Amino acid sequence: MSYFSLRQVSKSYESQTALHEFSLELAKGEFLSIVGESGSGKSTLLRIAAGLMTQSSGEVWLGDQQIQNPKQKLVAGYDEIKLIHQDYHLFPNATVEENISRPLMNYDPEYKKLRVKSLLEQLGLEKYKDRLPRQLSGGQQQKVAIAQALAVEPEVLLLDEPFSHLDTIQKHKLIFELKEVLRESGTTVIFVTHDLDDALRLTDSVLILQKGKVIQKGNSRALCEHPKTRYVARLFSPINLIPDRLDNYIRPADVRLRTKGELLGHVIDQRFLVHYNSLLIRLRNGGQVWEVDDPARKYEIGDRVYLHFDEEKVLVLKG
Ligand SMILES: Nc1ncnc2c1ncn2[C@@H]1O[C@H](COP(=O)(O)OP(=O)(O)OP(=O)(O)O)[C@@H](O)[C@H]1O
Predict the structure, then answer these.
(1) DSSP letters along 251-275, please?
(2) Domains in the chain: boundaries
(3) How many A from CA of 176 to the centre of ligand 1?
(4) Of ligand 1's atoms, which has the minimum distance to the CA of residue 194?
(5) What is the CATH class of 237-316?
(6) Which of 14, 81, 134, 170 is buried deepest, with most CB atoms within 10 A?
(7) Ligand 1 in reach of 11 Cβ (< 6 A)
(8) pLDDT of 74-85, one tens digit each?
(9) Which Pfam families does the annotation name (predicted)?
(10) Contacts of 21 (CB under 8 A, 6+ apart)
């Protein structure tokens, strides 16, 4: 049953189309990640979804309420739909506790107190509650911005790359913590990012956006095993073009290294990774370079190797 939906939403800036007939249906409490490269229309999409930008055409619905855009509504935006982006704005002279309670100004004081206490606990911010934003790390400040957005208990949370200022370890920890908080509250979530790994840490359900259009939607396994385009395939790993075969590619993990065979190359680079060595291999015919996994860590720079692969692992990718 659809709860939050975008219906044929398009947006053009002057002559440029940023979003083209974009449609989406989410059930209550569903999480979806949208992955797209820079300029693919992710921020435009979320601003329209939050009622903060006027679309050129199409509609946004939350339950049976049509979301009004800034041309239709005096004060743009909704408490039910909150957007968090990387450039959050905290009140610099207010403490963490005051920042979180600010959106609850008109609420019952007793409710406000309990809600802020609960958010401080959920996001692990109790010990910082009396600090000013400048006395916090980037990750802690981002948590305060998230708590501030959650204060009014939004039905829908839209996350626009809000973790991009954080280092990888901090980011993964925050995504994990946030996932628990949002699951518990039954919030419907759309997370946009250019990083597939971040997306898959929050949810297994991913939509790929390119040049304002939906390229593919599915769970990680379906997208990885049956990518529709080279861009989707490359989000998971590099892909190697098979010589003399049009649009045929093979992933580094699907290549086996042997001492005999037909496709000959030699190792020109080697990287130590957690579960395998990653090799760069220059093919003898044509000089093309393949990236190949060496799980046995057997081969060294300069070695001659023959490359094998199963036909069923070959990806045929046109776009
Ligand atoms: N105010 C504007 N005026 C004109 N063009 C714009 C405007 N805002 C965005 N665009 C264009 O619309 C397209 C989509 O932009 P948008 O910011 O939605 O993409 P994005 O996927 O969020 O990018 P990024 O990941 O870099 O933030 C881009 O080509 C951008 O140049």
Answers:
(1) -GGG-EEESSSSEEEEEEEEEE-SS
(2) 4-225, 237-316
(3) 28
(4) 25
(5) mainly beta
(6) 81
(7) no
(8) 888 998 999 998
(9) ABC_tran, TOBE_2
(10) 8, 9, 10, 58, 213
Residue 167 to residue 46: CA distance in whole angstroms: 24
Take atom 2 of ligand 1 and give the residue whose Cα is closest. 13
Q: Name which residue sits closest to atom 28 of ligand 1, judged by CA.
A: 39
Nearest to 98 by CA among 24, 148, 61, 142: 148
Q: Is 210 in the pocket of ligand 1 (CB under 6 A)?
A: no
Q: What is the pLDDT of residues 178-227, one digit of tens each?
A: 899 899 989 999 999 999 999 999 999 999 999 999 999 999 999 999 99
- Could you report the per-residue pLDDT of 61-74, keeping only the tens digit for each? 999 999 999 999 88
If one residue of 37, 38, 44 were mutated to test the ligand 1 pocket, choosing by the most ligand atoms within 8 A of its CB, it would be 44
E strands of 129-253, at which residues?
156-160, 188-193, 205-210, 213-219, 240-241, 248-250
Q: How many residues does the chain have?
A: 319
**Ligand 1 atom with least separation from CA of 46:** 18
Give the pLDDT mean for 14-36.
95
Per residue in 118-168, pLDDT (tens digit) is: 999 988 899 999 999 999 988 889 889 999 999 999 999 999 988 877 888
Cβ(16) – ligand 1 distance below 6 Å:
yes
Please identify, in words, the CATH class of the domain defined by 4-225. alpha beta
Indicate if the pLDDT at residue 285 is higher than 80: no
Atom of ligand 1 nearest to the CA of 45: 18
Ligand 1 centroid vs 64 CA: distance in angstroms? 30
Q: Is the CB of 38 under 6 A from ligand 1?
A: yes
Tokens of 300: 């060294």
Place of tokens 């659809």: 2
